[in-house]
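User: I'm new to structure prediction. If I give you an amino acid sequence, what do you actually give back? Let's try with this one:
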Amino acid sequence: MVMDINSSHVSGHLRAFALAAPRELSSSGMVAGSLPPRWLKIIQDVIASPSPASSLAAENDTRCGEQILSYGNMEKVVIGAILSLITLLTIAGNCLVVISVCFVKKLRQPSNYLIVSLALADLSVAVAVMPFVSVTDLIGGEWIFGHVFCNVFIAMDVMCCTASIMTLCVISIDRYLGITRPLTYPVRQNGKCMAKMILCVWLLSASITIPPLFGWAQNVNDEKVCLISQDFGYTIYSTAVAFYIPMSVMLFMYYQIYKAAKRSAAKHKFAGFPRPEENEGMVSVNGVIKLHKESEECTNFSRLLKHDRKNISIFKREQKAATTLGIIVGAFTVCWLPFFILSTARPFICGTACSCIPFWVERTFLWLGYANSLINPFIYAFFNRDLRTTYRNLLQCRYRNINRKLSAAGMHEALKLAEKPEFVL
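Assistant: Good question. You get back a string of structure tokens that encode the predicted 3D arrangement of the chain. For your 425 residues, that looks like this:
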């Protein structure tokens, strides 16, 4: 019969006996030299061997603690400067959006409520999440903010980032319906409906943070590591709701807007003066008939030109919406796709206990996702003349008469289009 002395139960008893043996022997007057050499060797081996509990603790320390790095002073300065710059620019850009829409009358429209919600979500990421991640990265990845705050931090991170992503998804749906159904889509003109949509976005984002707080999937949280739950079911659920489903919807909406713009371009295509048919040219020998036909053609051309100005305006709006949404979807995909692919694959690669992905890879993908909160305000400002004008006036401390300047700029743009009509070839 072979005894497995490596089992926790047996080795625990042997270790307790070996530790107590010297004391018992000394109290009974016996000395170690009086024991057989074989028994002495067994006792020494058992005492020298580590206990199962200490081995398990050492294994856990190695798995989670091996990700902690140590940086030199120069590396800390460079990393701190980059992360601080990203955080400050994100705060400044999204504050500009909120101030512009809330305090400028022309921008205070229900159609811009979603942009404010997106800016608030991105601002929350910059204020409530980025500083703690920056400090953790500067000290090499060690979590120093305590066990309780770890769960709070993960909840804020997941909710704010998900709210930002899902607001982008709702914006794409809003743009699509506003372009394809301008008369039957009243939500853009109804502030209450838009507010309900925004509330649903935030509630759905918060629902992803609830399971780890109520015991479905516990976060990985010890003295050194703070990591979102790696439970297989929760990982699939959270990444699907927070990223894969919104991304699929955004891509579908962009494709639909692109098709609508393409159909509009074919419908409103204008090639110039209508040409007479060849047989008409052969019959029209008399110069008077030629002059009459040319005058009719000029009249038809002016009528078509007047009608096409509206069509050109509609087409330009659709084309602009397609371009804007395409850049937004492209930037969103480039920023967040690597992080969510890594987050989805990590439990299947490393298991549910801890992360085995190199720390610098995880942090690079995470900050690439955070960068999406930085570039969103600048994307909207680049394609929105009113936002650009408001930004410029606010940064130059010209707070007075912003609404009047926006109205004057809009009137100038309309007159410019009326004087120089554009033809889509």
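You can read the tokens as a compact description of the fold. Here is one thing that stands out. The chain has two domains: 8-49, 73-385.
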